What we know:
Elements: H1 3-13, H2 17-28, H3 31-49, H4 58-76, H5 100-119, H6 122-133, H7 138-145, H8 149-176
Helix pairs in contact: 1-3, 2-3, 2-4, 2-6, 3-4, 4-7, 5-8, 6-8, 7-8
Amino acid sequence: MDDSARRSLEASCVPHLRAAYNLARWLARDEHEAADVVQEASLRAVKYFEGASEIADARAWFLRIVRNTFYSSRSRAAPDRGAASFDEALHTGARDPFNPEATALRDSDREVVRAALRELALDFREALVLREIEGLSYKEIGAITGVPIGTVMSRLARARRALAEALARRTKKERSS
């Protein structure tokens, strides 16, 4: 790869590494597997970058590689290796050190949502992460997942409904405890 192609690849993919890791983390539910997926996806991006014709949306292109890498590695792995706990330090913003009660409530709410999100089917979790966390458009999600926009919309609607139901179950369970 010549120097200009390397700079072009870096400009196209490096700004999206955080989104790539975030997607891989939510799909894999394991920080180490997510890091491996992003690393493998980055190698694939290097391999196919020069062969790719004009890339209209580098973020969608790179996230699709991440997604495909995850599913490829998953098909080679054991069917269910279990879920790892979510790493709070990696995925939360700054905390207000002067208000520990607010911090505790915010952390509690986040964990309830994360736990409910982890319960969702992979297709639903993927759609919600791409739309609500990464802020991608329906068109971009369709390009990444390889499904029509109508399917993206349907998955998001069903995923939101399933998430609401999971949150309601968790809330009900906490109130009865």
